[in-house]
Amino acid sequence: MTALLDVLAITAALGTAVIFGTDVLGALVMRPTYAALDDATMTRVVGLGHRYGTARMPIPGTLSVVAGAATTLTAFLLGSPAAGAAAGSALLLLLAWLVLFNRISLPINKVFIEAAETGRVPAGARELQQRWDSIINLRAVLQGVALLGFCLTLALAAA
User: Fold this and answer.
1) The total number of structural domains that make up the chain
2) Torsion angle of alpha carbons 149, 51, 31, 66, nearest 10°?
3) Looking at residues 125-148, what average pLDDT do you find?
4) How many CB atoms neighbour CB 8 within 10 A?
5) For the segment 98-123, what is each residue's pLDDT rounded down to a tens digit?
6) 91-97 — which CB contacts under 8 Å span 24+ positions?
7) Among 77, 97, 134, residue whose Cα is nearest residue 15
8) Which residues are CB-contacts of 84 (< 8 A; sequence separation ≥ 6)?
9) Are 113 and 51 in contact (CB under 8 A)?
10) Predicted local confidence at residue 159, as pLDDT
């Protein structure tokens, strides 16, 4: 049964790592890149990026949350409360990330996707991008700490 816990925690960690890496890339590379572009180019690039992200990123995101919940439950069922607490804490961080993403990032993503597909620049495009940028560091931290939580789960389950 501990092999099941390991597989679940590794799956949760890998799914989380994909989102974490994407958010870190957004914070460290894409944010200053977008700031250097004119509004029309920024809108096109951001919109296309979000179109692909919206289509593809739910897979690792969903995987991390589902595997995180299964990891938490399995750890507690196997009598490893410390591992369960670590996994549960990581899961809560992922859920907090999801709330931020759905309330702030996703609506902005949709505006940029539509603008890129129609070839227009939305009113306040720069301000929209700045609003999106305003939480990218927090999103990256939430994902990074969640990833550490799943790694800690593995260490505690092995102890």
Assistant:
1) 1
2) -10
3) 98
4) 25
5) 999 999 999 999 999 999 999 999 99
6) 91/12, 91/65, 91/146, 93/142, 93/143, 93/145, 93/146, 93/149, 94/16, 94/64, 94/65, 94/68, 94/142, 94/143, 94/146, 95/65, 96/142, 97/19, 97/139, 97/142, 97/143, 97/146
7) 97
8) 72, 73, 75, 76
9) yes
10) 81
Segment 49-59, tens digit of pLDDT = 999 999 999 99
Closest to 92 (Cα-Cα) out of 145, 155, 156, 136:
145
Q: How much of the chain, in percent, has pLDDT values that exceed 90?
A: 97
- Domain residue limits at 55: 2-158
The one-letter code for the residue type at 119 is G
Instruction: Spell out where the chain has E strands.
Output: none
Contact yes or no for 141/18 (Cβ under 8 A): no
- What gap in Å lies between CA 51 and CA 47, rounded to an integer? 6
Give the type of residue at 74: T
**Token couple for 24:** 């870190």
